[in-house]
Amino acid sequence: MGPLTLTINSKNSSMSSPDVSNGKSQRLQLIPKKSFASISSGEDKPVDFLRTLFEGFIAGGTAGVVVETALYPIDTIKTRLQAARGGGKIVLQGLYSGLAGNLVGVLPASALFVGVYEPAKKKLLKMLPENLSAVAHLTAGAIGGVAASLIRVPTEVVKQRLQTGQFSSAPDAVRLIVSKEGFKGLYAGYGSFLLRDLPFDAIQFCIYEQLRIGYKLAARRDLHDPENAAIGAFAGAITGAITTPLDVIKTRLMIQGSANQYKGIFDCVQTILKEEGPPALLKGIGPRVLWIGIGGSIFFGVLERTKKILAERQLLQQSNDQSSDTPKQD
């Protein structure tokens, strides 16, 4: 049994006065404190899949667009650092190259990820014991990542080709990639993308959710927007640093085009280590940690705020529906 904590039992005693000073007693009861990796669902109501999916789409899409627009220049610098070989010079012009086309993919990808993650998380939390909530968060993050990858990968391929100056516009990039490399060219580096993004999504969301659980247990209240943002920044920065080598590999495979310099993930790793040494696998770690840390702050802050607004609107709608169903008295 974990450490004990005191909570207030709000059940009324036999005295009917509502005021504490008039004699209402509040009974203290010892209960075991929940472990850091546990969460209580609070309700036994079934998961409203369609509503959760819809709200996740809206919240995820909103958060994704805000983050991408705000931090695109940092992402461009990170990509150019990773793409550079040897002592290649980093160009700092056109840092917003490809933003408009990228947003076309980011919006549905972010919406799809959160739209799948939220109902999957809620379902898994109901199925698994409370002490396995971390498993639920990891699994839901991976499921959301697989679903979103169908949109994310072509978006990422086009974005990174634009960021490295291979094409001048997103439509031209799509047309030329398909004509030269076939439709599969839009999914270049798909395996390395999953190798990076599945653990990234799973770890980031798990760290974020678990930190929120621990913080809420300690604070004994719902978290404020700045607190959600701070937790999101920490989760993003840590996860970004851990997955930087995977991101370097993904970038190299996606931007190689029809040259096919690398035959696959393992060949890419071996070539980088042989020609550039181990430090090359950490190229762009500074901009990446900065980008994802700030991005995590904005993303999770906007995500939680949007979810809260949607929940409040739902409660207001339910209240209005109940009021309209109540028969008026003469």
UniProtKB/TrEMBL annotation:
InterPro entries linked: MCP, MCP_dom_sf, MCP_transmembrane
Subcellular localization: Membrane; Plastid, Chloroplast membrane
Region listing for Disordered, in residue ranges: 1-26
One of the Pfam families matching this protein, by short name: Mito_carr
Gene3D superfamilies recorded: Mitochondrial carrier domain
Ranges for the Solcar repeats: 51-123, 132-214, 227-309
GO CC annotation: chloroplast membrane; mitochondrial inner membrane
Gene Ontology molecular functions: S-adenosyl-L-methionine transmembrane transporter activity
Segments traversing the membrane: 53-74, 95-114, 134-153
Keywords: Chloroplast, Membrane, Plastid, Repeat, S-adenosyl-L-methionine, Transit peptide, Transmembrane, Transmembrane helix, Transport
Membrane topology qualifier: Multi-pass membrane protein
Family per record: Belongs to the mitochondrial carrier (TC 2.A.29) family.
Name recorded for this polypeptide: S-adenosylmethionine transporter
Organism of this sequence: Lactuca sativa
